[in-house]
Design brief:
Elements: H1 5-11, H2 14-21, H3 25-80, H4 84-158, H5 163-191, H6 195-225
Helix pairs in contact: 3-4
Length: about 230
């Protein structure tokens, strides 16, 4: 029956294949449960109809069985009253009623068997639905863990390489270049000094020496006076 296809799918493990293809396992799991609920409602309707058929045949069988017993009693009563013809007609009708009773009994047995089978399948669906509901939270937790692990692995696979490492290498090279340029500019400045610059520097240093010599002479003169 089509209403039990969902149950067969789940018990055969196809839920795992569907989850592998799902973009959002959480949404898919919720959809599975909604689909199962719809299937269960459909199955309950079918079971209810079959039970109604079973009860109808059961009622017809019980009524025909009672009528057979009634015709037997009526035939016996007619004989007691000396009415053999009436007794004979009662027994003839009893025979017809017995044939109908047998038919109702056969139909009732078949309908009861079908109803019992559907009851069992419905019970199995409900049990499976309960298991899936209990399993849903675990599957969702596993899905979220796997998703987080995948994101971390992807981040770690590029960590310290490619863009980051290349960026650091570029900055290191740039700093070295800046240092080299600074050193070169200093050397260039020293090499560009003129003769006048050097002579001026000598004059500056010579003036200090002259002043120092004057101070020494003054100090020597003080000592002699003492």
């Amino acid at each position: 029956m089509g209403i039990f296809k969902r149950l067969r799918d789940l018990t055969m493990g196809s839920i795992n294949d569907l989850l592998d293809k799902a973009e959002d396992p959480v949404k898919m799991l919720n959809q599975f449960l909604r689909d199962m609920e719809e299937d269960i409602l459909e199955a309950e309707t079918s079971v209810a109809k079959q039970i109604a058929i079973e009860k109808k045949f059961k009622q017809q069988y019980d009524e025909s069985e009672e009528l057979v017993a009634k015709r037997t009693e009526q035939a016996l009563k007619a004989l007691e009253q000396g009415n053999e013809d009436l007794a004979r007609r009662a027994l003839e009708d009893k025979k017809e009623q017995q044939a109908r009773c047998n038919q109702f009994k056969e139909q009732y047995d078949i309908s009861k068997k079908n109803a019992d089978q559907l009851r069992g399948q419905l019970s199995e669906m409900k049990d499976e639905f309960t298991k899936m509901k209990n399993k849903k939270e675990l599957l969702i937790a596993r899905a979220e863990t796997a998703k987080a692990q995948k994101q971390i692995n992807q981040a770690m696979s590029g960590f310290g390489t490619d863009n980051g490492a290349k960026g650091f290498d570029r900055m290191s090279a740039k700093v070295l270049q800046m240092e080299a340029e600074a050193q070169a500019s200093g050397e260039l400045r020293d090499s560009s000094r003129t003769l006048d610059d050097e002579l001026d520097q000598l004059d500056k240093s010579g003036g200090v020496e002259d002043e120092l010599a004057v101070l020494k002479a003054q100090l020597a003169a003080r000592k002699q006076q003492q």
